[in-house]
Design goal:
270 residues, alpha/beta, Rossmann fold, 4-stranded antiparallel β-sheet, 31% helix, globular, ATP binding, P-loop_NTPase
Length: 270
């Protein structure tokens, strides 16, 4: 990573993390600039979700450096991290049957003073976030009664209501149908472009990554195998080395973006 990288983003240098004696991240270098979407891709168990948890302050301590808007993450209070960065997990957990509006209002808590209650302004921001995510109709429904995809939309709204400078997305649309996936990523693209929000998205769908990500990091066994602009990283050699499977890579004639098609191992070459 160049020393010329701007200090206002997320900067990760030689990041290492282990669960006990088992290393999971082994010297990761990565950056996320304001106003861009960065994709983090790799096979199961490569360390993607662990990296998200380190950057969100859930997992400590770590070795190496991870800075958020120029401040070392390990030195930041949890509230300060939450004012700057919001996380959309793959499988949100709700301890109680809050309704959707109450869940989204939790995104306003980092901005409240002490034990203060949410203001009318906070409620308006929460409702706007629900509307942007196509979930306003669920505002007064218990989240435990919603489908998995509907809950993901509510959690995305919570992250937007938090008004963060950065979003960390961990497979945020894994339970959504194709329409709601496109709507979510269009919304994230607009948020990045219009609000200069920096986004790091853990994704398994290579074609979603190709359509929406400005840059890509390929992670395998806790190490970055390749990084750079999406069109440069999405090559047969890089994807084969990362995922240990054959793919067909071309340019989508309709969009001009990369197109990746997994090839069955049963199919014989012509």
């Amino acid at each position: 990573m160049s020393s010329a990288e701007p200090a206002g983003g997320i900067q990760v240098r030689n990041l290492r993390f282990s669960y006990g004696e088992r290393p999971v991240l082994a010297g990761v270098d990565l950056s996320v600039r304001p106003g861009e979407i960065v994709g983090l891709l790799g096979p199961n168990g490569s360390g993607k979700s662990t990296l998200v948890k380190v950057l969100s302050g859930v997992l400590r301590p770590y070795e190496g450096s991870a800075t958020l808007a120029g401040r070392e993450l390990k030195d930041m209070a949890t509230r300060d991290v939450a004012r700057t960065l919001a996380v959309v997990p793959q499988e949100p957990v709700f301890g109680f049957s809050f309704n959707a509006l109450e869940v989204v209002l939790m995104g306003r808590h980092p901005h409240l003073a002490g034990l203060a209650f949410e203001s009318e302004s906070d409620i308006a921001k929460a409702r706007t976030a629900l509307q942007r995510c196509g979930a306003l109709e669920f505002a007064h429904r218990p989240v435990l009664e919603l489908s998995a995809g509907e809950r993901q939309r509510v959690v995305a709204a919570r992250a937007l209501a938090q008004e963060p400078d950065f979003l960390l997305l961990d497979e945020p649309s894994s339970f959504m149908d194709i329409r709601h996936q496109v709507e979510l990523y269009d919304l994230i693209r607009d948020q990045s472009d219009n609000e200069a929000t920096g986004v790091m998205a853990v994704l398994h769908d290579l074609n979603i990554a190709a359509e929406y990500c400005d840059r890509i990091y390929l992670l395998k066994e806790g190490r970055i195998l390749a990084s750079g602009p999406t069109a440069e990283v999405f090559t047969y050699a890089n994807l084969k080395a990362t995922f240990d499977t054959d793919v067909y890579v071309d340019v989508n004639a309709l969009t001009g973006r990369m197109l990746v098609v997994p090839l069955s191992q049963r199919r014989k070459p012509r």
